[in-house]
């Protein structure tokens, strides 16, 4: 056998080996994804979790606070939490909800808040946003939690907690937010209407690859200070007695209508 033929045969064998390894890895990955999907469906059926299937973004999204971009409007449409719930399990007032899509390495959330008196005094990132009107989004994987507090001014306080320890506010997620509001902030003399936050979170910051079939725990809450009233909070997927823990799963590109709560 001449040298050139030996090289060609060796190269062909190497290609077959590499191809076989990649195929085996793909099969193992597909089987693992199938097992995860089956486990999530079983947990959902038992009521242990509230499963939200998030579709791949069908078009462009511009972070400007508006939710009129193709990424929010084109079929199949975003996943929706529906009404946030009060501690009693009933739809809370003021009304809040969240929509989600994913793509381009990010998870996109549209956080909606009806609000007759918008209050927000924290101007610096990683400040005490939670003392104002604010949303809080918490993602969880075994041994780690990621929290995002966002105000009507689109100020973000992000933090990470490992193994149930203290929240670390030096962590930087790289998330971006934009806001739109109908009302006058910090002016109790008039009547406001609502505010909306568009939030883009890099999957990398959540320890995710951003591929179909991936899942992560998620809970949402929104607190508001109504006029002449005490602070009220509501939530979705927070594991209260009336509903299970929230979990999101990334749907394939071109998947059908997303599930909802």
Q: How is this structure best described in words?
A:
With 261 residues, the chain is α+β, with helices and mostly antiparallel strands. It is built from 2 helices and 12 strands; from the N terminus they run αβαβββββββββββ. The strands form 2 sheets. Strands 1, 5, 6, 7, 10, 11 and 12 form a 7-stranded mixed beta sheet that branches. Residues 25-30, 42-48 and 255-261 have low confidence and may be disordered.
Short characterization:
This protein has 261 residues and is an alpha+beta fold. It is 18% helix and 32% strand.
Key attributes of the depicted protein:
single chain, five-stranded antiparallel beta sheet, 18% helix, disordered C terminus
**How big a fraction of the residues is strand?**
25-35%
Residue-averaged pLDDT, rounded?
Answer: 84
Helix residue percentage: 10-25%
Number of β-strand runs: 12
| Helix-strand category | alpha+beta
Radius of gyration: 22 Å
Gross morphology is globular
Q: For this entry, what is the oligomeric state of its chains?
A: single chain
Q: Could you give a short account of the major beta sheet?
A: 7 strands, mixed
Q: Quote the distance from N terminus to C terminus.
A: 67 Å
Total helical segments = 2
- What string gives the helices and strands in order? HEHEEEEEEEEEEE
Q: Can you tell me the residue ranges where pLDDT is under 50 for at least 5 consecutive residues?
A: 25-30, 42-48, 255-261
